[in-house]
Batch of 2 targets.
Target 1
Amino acid sequence: MRIIKFEKDIKLILNQLLLNQLIVCVKNASPNEACGLLFGEVKEIVHNGEYQYHFRGKKFSCIESNQKSPVAFLMKNLEELNRIFQEAFQKDNLRLISIFHSHPGGTYPSETDFTNMRFLDNCGNKAFKNQIWAIMNVRNMKLNGYILFNNEFMQIEVKIKNSKT
Ligand SMILES: [Zn+2]
């Protein structure tokens, strides 16, 4: 297992309703891996003189798939990912902020996940750069986030808000 640092200045912020949609997506996909895309906005915020990046989720699309690993499918079909991305941008003016999937136990990225994170960051499409990889543990529905930022893998903070904003 790699040791990766925890970066508290990068946050994935979701409200409870959105989190519930993630949980439903995971339950419906069981026993297969669930996968989905989170759309929203990224805000740069100065907090006590330090820069913070807030990835605010606004919309979630659960990706239904017969494939055991829809994430692997998407990584191999970037046109498909791009199509979903363009649609969200044109319809709701939201950008892709996070790629979501589930693990049967734990939330730590697999070696394949690390490879895919690097692949997506280097694929040349700027829209896919700096995506948070949100991983949910099926056993307890705990959600963690990871990002490749400045060429370094980091775990980021996931914040769940009760309000609708
Ligand atoms: Zn994974």
Target 2
Amino acid sequence: MRGRCHCGNISYELQTELAEPPLRACQCSFCRMHAARSISDPAGRLVFDVEDESLLSRYRFGLATADFLVCRRCGAYAGAFMDGYGIANARLLETALLREPSPVSYDGETAEQRIARRRERWTPGEIRIRAPRATSGS
Ligand SMILES: [Zn+2]
């Protein structure tokens, strides 16, 4: 399954054998603002490809245990990534998933519980950067 942000700077590929990966509607304020629909497959693989890193925002909030990948150019929320595990925002899929999502709320989790849940449910993968952000000095 392939998705990309509106301008194309961030794209992802979710490799999964599941015909219908669970579609979750996280009820946190960030996901509600983006009307995000999360998909993952712990047995699959998720790779984000970023063309220009300077246009990638790795937004952190709350317990700050994951990076929420937002395109600085078009504003799309592509998915989140933590320590080798990620979820994708199904809103970016070329073919929209029209199924009703399951509402989920993770309020009240400790940072430890949150990380453990993600390691269990998120998809192993990586973020590949085509054009790294230029660093000053050497
Ligand atoms: Zn974009």
